[in-house]
Amino acid sequence: MSDHQDVVTHVLLPVARVSLFVRDQDIRDLAESLKSDWRFARVTFDIRDGDVDTAIDTYRQAVSPNLVIVETEEIGDSFTGRLEVLANSCAENTAAVVVGPVNDVYLYRRLIDMGVSDYLVRPVDRDVLIELIAKILIEKLGAPGSRMVAFVGAKGGVGTSMVAQTSALVSSHDLEQKTVIMDAAGGGSYLSVAMGTEAVTTLHEASRVSGSSDQDSFRRMIVKVGDNLSILATGAESVLDVPVSADQFELILNKLMVTFPLVVVDLSQAPKSLVAVTMERAHDVVVVSTPTLPSLRSARSLFQEIKALRGGDEKGLHLVLNQKGQSQGFEVSDQDIETALKIHPDMVINFQPKIFSAAESSGKTLFEVAGSKEVAAQFKSFLIKNMRFSSEEISEKPSDGGSKMLSGFLGKFKSK
What we know:
By secondary structure, the protein is an alpha/beta fold.
């Protein structure tokens, strides 16, 4: 594989829409298989049984996508004429790829001159299609990084893991974000148990594989626990094992960031060196505290240290108050909390042992526990409001009043 191929086929592709109008079943099956490929986690595929005329009818009434792939049996003037109609039915800045029956150099040059991105000949090779789609999307949209959210407790026992796990569940389930969650606690992690699976690796092994080209071993460390939720199934090491270094841990973070749009990191029992490097890197840091004086004092100090690590920047820092009502009569008032911490709590979670304790004790997820619907809605609101984890954010929307597509394609037709 060339260096260029390695760049475009080993990264998470940007949010995009790709439509295929094809009749060949092999191409349809091939495109369907890309939906489960990690590189296409942000890409929405619309696969239709049809041809250029089907595409024309579709985009006379709907907004065209970033890339249109059209199969044809006809390669003469009538087909190129229909391509012109398709171009005028679409908006600018989309790419077009044609799949045809014969290898015709003259046709290829003619299509390229018209603004078509490429011409493929059946049968289409899977790797060729992956590279072509990736190349087009990266050239047009770039390859933006994923979002990392770190959860850290003001002190022990405040429920940081619960808040992190529930955020991952809600983001993947309700907001339909491709999400991975990992625990930096090493042998002290109970993430796999909480998600109903088993630990299969260690942080040391995960860091080793993350720094290598061993893609298969890394994929085996990722356990899928929902349609959009996976975990890095570490925790198989002994509790007293020497932890990984900050540099080793960053290798894991880097690997996850090019594999998943959303990376959730639980730092509740992590070594301080891993906490520091993650909080420097994270887009958002969520500090979990209870509304009691000892916890809030620790939270205030932690906020100051996090801001220092991040160059004084307060952007992306969030406070979650958990277990409100557990220590009635000894809790600090909301007004005093804001005065002392100079930050408004982004979410206040009432003490609800019948939900959270039941989930932890039974090894069930939040959605499997009776009465959790209101809690899930609270987390959903928190994520949408504070971290823009809305489902709209991961769906393609027209920008700048309609965002014209098929620029080169349409532009070259109009210039004739």
